[in-house]
């Protein structure tokens, strides 16, 4: 795919960052750094989750949250190199915060707005939406907005971002089953940054005619009839 200068995204103009992009060695170093960070965050999050489950094995919402986030990091490690990626500093910061921000979530017991026996099965369904989306996406998964190839089948026949939809649903259900003001603030920031990441990702993918055709067929990003 050829990207013309006129197609460049704001924040990705030629300069220092484009110079780094031109170096295959530095590109490999960046990829390696991101994947190392993913492993470190995953290990820390899993350790925290296991610790909570040892204390209280009945915390199914913690188990499901831990599985969902661990899958994010596993898929990142298996992802193929992108064709085009947004390396603008602000987008890098926003995307990393959105992708790894769950590591800041408190796993302590909170206020039970809805009972765990209701929240956990629904959270399990949200997890399956995430898994379905990732299986549909294959190795095209990314943390930073990127083009690793346009995927339009599987879960992507219904919404443009089924993985993000599953994350959002799972976060809301965890929050409702173990509410705290702190976790509400963390998830609010993650959700705001996820929306920014979605919009940047769509701008990159929309540089291809295939994705522009896809936008015409699938209208909604996360939830049909809503957004």
Please characterize this protein's 3D structure.
By secondary structure, this protein is mainly α. The chain has 8 helices and 2 strands. Helix 3 runs parallel beside helix 5, helix 3 packs antiparallel against helix 6 and helix 4 (89-100) packs across helix 7 (181-205).
Question: Strand sequence of the main sheet, in spatial order?
Answer: 1-2
CATH class placement: Mainly Alpha
The CATH topology is what? Four Helix Bundle (Hemerythrin (Met), subunit A)
- Individual helix count: 8
| N-to-C order of helices and strands | HHHEHHEHHH
Radius of gyration: 18 Å
Mean pLDDT: 81
Number of domains: 1
Number of strands: 2
Per CATH, the architecture is Up-down Bundle
Distance between the termini: 29 Å
The major pleated sheet works out as: 2 strands, antiparallel
3D shape: globular
Helix content bin: 55-70%
Low-confidence stretches: 1-8
**Secondary structural class:** mainly alpha
**Strand residue percentage:** under 5%
Task: Give the key terms.
227 residues, mainly alpha, Four Helix Bundle (Hemerythrin (Met), subunit A), two-stranded antiparallel sheet, 8 helices, 62% helix, globular, disordered N terminus
Task: Give a quick summary of the entry.
This protein is an all-alpha fold. Residues 1-8 have low confidence and may be disordered.
């Amino acid at each position: 795919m050829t990207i013309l200068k006129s197609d460049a995204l704001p924040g990705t103009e030629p300069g220092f960052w484009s110079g780094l992009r031109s170096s295959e060695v530095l590109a490999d170093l960046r990829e390696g750094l991101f994947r190392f960070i993913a492993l470190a965050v995953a290990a820390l999050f899993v350790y925290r989750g296991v610790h909570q489950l040892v204390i209280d094995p009945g915390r199914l919402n913690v188990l499901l949250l831990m599985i969902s986030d661990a899958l994010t990091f596993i898929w990142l490690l298996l992802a193929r190199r992108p064709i085009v990626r947004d390396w603008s500093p602000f987008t890098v910061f926003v995307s990393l915060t959105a992708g790894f921000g769950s590591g800041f979530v408190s796993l302590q017991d909170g206020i039970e707005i809805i009972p765990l026996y209701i929240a956990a099965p629904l959270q399990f369904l949200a997890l399956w939406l995430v898994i379905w989306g990732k299986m549909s996406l294959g190795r095209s998964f990314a943390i930073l907005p990127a083009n690793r190839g346009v995927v339009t089948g599987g879960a992507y026949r219904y919404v443009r971002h089924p993985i993000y939809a599953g994350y959002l649903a799972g976060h809301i259900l965890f929050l409702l089953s173990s509410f705290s003001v702190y976790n509400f603030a963390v998830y609010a920031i993650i959700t705001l940054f996820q929306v920014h990441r979605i919009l940047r990702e769509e701008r990159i993918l929309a540089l291809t005619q295939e994705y522009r055709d896809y936008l015409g067929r699938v209208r909604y990003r996360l939830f049909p009839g809503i957004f």
